[in-house]
What we know:
single chain; alpha/beta; 6-stranded antiparallel β-sheet; 15 strands; binds flavin-adenine dinucleotide; binds FE2/S2 (inorganic) cluster
Amino acid sequence: MSTDHNPGEAEEGGGAASPHGVVPMPVRVNRVRDEMAGVTTLELTPICAFSFVPGQFNMLYVFGLGEVAISLSGVPAEEYRVVHTVRAVGAVSQAITRLRRNDVIGVRGPYGSYWPIFDSEGSDVVMVAGGLGLAPLRPVIYHVLAHRERYGRVVVLYGARGPADILYRRELEAWRRRLDLDITVTVDHAAAEWRGNVGVVPALISRAPVDPNRAVAMVCGPEIMMRFTVDALRQRGLPMDRIFVSMERNMKCAIGLCGHCQFGPAFVCRDGPVFRFDRIAPFFNIREI
Ligand SMILES: Cc1cc2nc3c(=O)[nH]c(=O)nc-3n(C[C@H](O)[C@H](O)[C@H](O)COP(=O)(O)OP(=O)(O)OC[C@H]3O[C@@H](n4cnc5c(N)ncnc54)[C@H](O)[C@@H]3O)c2cc1C
Ligand code: FES
């Protein structure tokens, strides 16, 4: 495994501090794609080069309304195209999904820790995503494909509620045709015409084509899905220090000052959102935390 990479002050799987300021930068929306009902992908054009590491997030500010944390979901190497996929759930996220080309939004970031893409070189990589959890893992797929020779087997297990809820469907179909990437999609429920897998995503882990002795797992989705996924990965023989999860908590400052994102002794904005599982295992299963 390679250990010589240290972009900025952030850290793989925990312990990040953003080197960036706290003032949102106005950025123009260049392109909008409606992914499915209530979910939109925005492509923003920053006025200067913007770089991030997969797993990190930006704070998006709808002027006069508020700010939310949103994962970076685009190609890490594209410095003039910042991509976010947003589900409309509350006032701010709904306003973001209503933005159109040439609208302006405030952006600050990137913040947070990142997936262990550098320490995983030489290992098998298994990504397990549920629902919108595919968004923060998509940059890992882009990175791994751009440096394919550095990784062993690469497996993506993705679960959605139903066929209409599959995110990035066309890209997943294109990736499924590749021989150097193993993609399995499953849905919780489907009508008879669905020819794919039916069932929850953790159920795919027992037969995933990875070697537990040399695999690193990256997991993102609803917390209940992550709990079952971590259990299945451990049953498969992965040690806790090779399982990484991305946590979500409400955020305000995103720079470790306000305490809004407290998660046990950690702050998700500063110490996460990507955590190495052994570091959070004692409080991962306590729902109130
Ligand atoms: C590190 C990090 C990365 C994130 N990445 C993304 C991302 O890539 N895309 C994205 O859409 N969101 C993402 N989120 C969630 C996002 O920050 C907001 O919490 C969410 O958009 C709701 O904000 P709001 O102000 O619109 O709604 P709020 O006013 O906060 O909530 C309105 C209602 O929706 C419920 N709610 C809040 N959040 C969610 C949720 N995530 N799912 C379902 N119901 C919810 C609340 O309980 C409440 O009932 C991320 C959060 C974190 C911490
Ligand atoms: S949002 Fe994490 S400490 Fe303020």
